[in-house]
Design brief:
Elements: H1 5-16, H2 32-35, H3 63-77, H4 81-89, H5 92-96, H6 107-128, H7 146-154, H8 163-174, H9 183-191, H10 205-213, H11 235-240, E1 244-248, E2 262-263, E3 268-272, E4 274-276, H12 280-294, H13 301-311, H14 315-323, E5 327-329, H15 334-344, H16 358-368, H17 371-391, H18 395-429
Parallel strand pairs: 1-3, 4-5
Antiparallel strand pairs: 2-3
């Protein structure tokens, strides 16, 4: 028994050191199976926000700017340092509980980090919105392109602070008096988002982007578990079956909602416009990662990405949607855009029984598989497509064929005219 004592002691120590996942947890490291697909899309490039990337060597140059921003904020607001530290210290444990993993940073170092990072975010917002002046020596706003990288880093799941602590420090230092001065208003302006409804609880910036992207009609809780993913067809296949594609027009009621895809009884699939740009892949990947960790049984972004993955498989699919102004492709070419859509859904887990677009896919399947569309429309479109590929691949071929047809027609008319003339001449001599 005596030989077991050190083992018993060690195990008990581990029991004491156990930490349970808080119900407040909402900031996560990206799951490894997602990170392996594209590590750089989840990793900050210029600035760390929060503890998960704090101290990374590549991001250290921005630490001095954080200190400078906090000092400028203190001077402009005339607040004292101890009071600002107190705001963070009173909520230190609450902040820690927002992270899904144990943060081993000491209490003082943690408070200091949160203070500098929060002040950096606040001062960046204030300068961007023109409330605070941008000095010539500013390292961010005086360098073209750097603010774009900062914004990109603020949209990463692993690079977040709880929204509530940003709001509390901002309210203490700025003491806003009107809604236009509220931190939420500053946030919406900075990220150029317009929530359609009031958002009572914002967990962090990624959570805000997800909320702003939610469809007008959420899934009915009574329908959970009744969905399925069975019918999958590409844009070109649906088009061959007679489905028409249209950009869903924007209105105040559905602004920012990419997920409001609908198929009407006239055979028109209406899809909100999506702008593909340099940070689009990173933006969606981090939203997907957040849902994988926090909303897997109630996912919307994942389901939207799955739908795009079904629809888009070739550059031709992208080109069709670009022609219909459903996609605005700023990436350069259709092949690159296709690669983005193909990669977004790799290694992503989806609960098929809760698939949000299940009803939409059912409607498309019924339309696609009706006898008229299956045995008449689809073969006809494929036949015409074959003719186009075989005979009209080049503009010169089109001109040549057109010229030949015109020549044959004119020759035929000339021959008929000649026959008629001869016939009339013979009759007059008779």
């Amino acid at each position: 028994m005596g030989s077991l004592s050190p083992v018993v002691y060690s195990v008990r120590e581990k029991f004491i050191g156990l930490t349970s996942l808080s119900s407040s947890s909402c900031i996560y490291r990206v799951p490894e199976h997602l990170r392996r697909t594209s590590k750089e899309e989840y990793t900050p490039m210029v600035v760390s926000i929060g503890p998960l990337h704090h101290g990374d060597a590549m991001l250290l140059p921005m630490e001095e700017q954080k200190v400078g921003y906090f000092l400028a904020l203190l001077q402009k607001t005339e607040k004292d340092l101890p009071s600002c530290v107190g705001v963070i210290k009173r909520h230190a444990n609450e902040i820690r509980e927002c992270y899904a993993e144990k943060i081993s940073t000491s209490e003082n170092a943690f408070i200091e980090m949160v203070l500098f990072d929060s002040a950096f975010v606040i001062e960046t917002f204030l300068k961007s919105n023109g409330i605070h002046e941008v000095e010539e020596t500013d390292r961010i706003f005086s360098r073209p392109g750097l603010i774009g990288q900062v914004i990109r880093d603020m949209k990463l799941l692993e690079n977040q602070l709880p929204f509530f602590i940003l709001e509390k420090l901002y309210n203490f230092m700025m003491q806003p008096e009107s809604p236009s001065e509220y931190f939420r208003t500053m946030t919406f302006k900075f990220f150029k988002v317009e929530p359609r409804v009031s958002i009572p609880d914002i967990k962090h910036f990624v959570d805000l982007f997800r909320t702003c992207s939610m469809p007008q009609t959420l899934r009915d809780p009574r329908e959970k578990g009744k969905g399925k993913i069975e019918f999958r067809a590409r844009v070109t296949e649906l088009q061959e079956a007679g489905v028409r594609f249209e950009k869903r027009p924007e209105s105040q009621s559905c602004k920012n909602s990419l997920l409001d895809v609908e198929f009407d009884d006239k055979g028109i699939l209406k899809i909100p416009q999506l702008k593909l740009q340099d940070d689009t892949e990173s933006f969606f990947r981090n939203l997907v990662a957040y849902e994988q960790c926090h909303h897997l049984l109630d996912s919307y972004i994942i389901d939207y990405i799955a739908l795009l993955d079904f629809l888009i498989n070739t550059p031709k699919d992208v080109e069709t949607l670009v022609d219909k102004e459903i996609i605005v492709n700023w990436l350069g070419n259709s092949e690159e855009a296709t690669d983005v859509f193909k990669s977004l859904f790799k290694q992503v887990n989806i609960v098929s029984s809760n698939f949000y677009h299940s009803s939409l896919c059912d409607q498309l399947e019924k339309f696609y598989k009706t006898p008229w569309h299956r045995y008449v429309v689809v073969p006809w479109h494929r036949y015409v497509g074959t003719l186009k590929r075989k005979y009209f691949a080049h503009q010169l071929a089109v001109i040549s064929i057109f010229t030949a047809i015109v020549y044959l027609v004119l020759s035929f008319i000339q021959a008929i005219t000649g026959v008629i003339s001869v016939s009339q001449s013979g009759s007059s001599h008779g």
